[in-house]
Each structure stands twice: as C-alpha cells, then as structure tokens.
Amino acid sequence: TFIKAVLGNHVPSNISDKIWQVFSGKSDRLEFKEFICGMVVFLQGTVEEKMKFVFLIYDAEDTGYYTPQEMALFIQDLHPYDKLSPTEREKQIELWFSDIKKGRMTFDMWK
Known about the structure:
Elements: H1 2-7, H2 13-24, H3 32-44, H4 47-58, E1 65-66, H5 68-78, H6 86-97, E2 105-106, H7 107-110
Antiparallel strand pairs: 1-2
Helix pairs in contact: 2-4
C-alpha cells in the first residue's frame, strides 16, 4: 500500500494498514490533506498527540477503549523482543485489566 511504501519495510503490514485507517478515517481513499495532517501529528505532534495516534491504531473496533485482546496485539507488535513468555504476557495483561470496570481501558487510563 501507499503507506507501506512511505514507511518502508521496517513497519509490519498490519501496522501500516492501521496507520492508513487512522489517516483516512477508514475510507478507501486517502486525501492529500488527511495524509499531511496525519504525518504532521506522526512526526511533529506533542507526546500526547503521538500517544493518541498509537492508541487509535490499536483501537481496532474504533470504540475509544482497548480490550485485553487489543492490548495483547499492541504489546505483541510493539514489543516483539520482550522477555515474557506468552503465558506471562497474558498474566500481565490480566493484571492490568483486573481493576478496570468492564474490561475496557480508555486512552486516559492507558497514557
């Protein structure tokens, strides 16, 4: 895809596809203005704007919160070399979500 061509081979396809969705608003087309606005946030945004951008990439259902499954995908994609086994990673996610009502983590909770 176009975003994959822009980002290069170091970004996994599933991530570049999600970036496309965030930039384009899940449309099949990416307008030039959307691309420029997305790149400005991606490259020059504040830390919080960049964090929101990453949060949106992994909010697969566009619900405004992470489920444990979305958090597991986030960790898997962004921390492929962590030292936790899959079982240990699952236990860590369960711990993070244990105090959260309804098993949902909002952006404000995540940041």
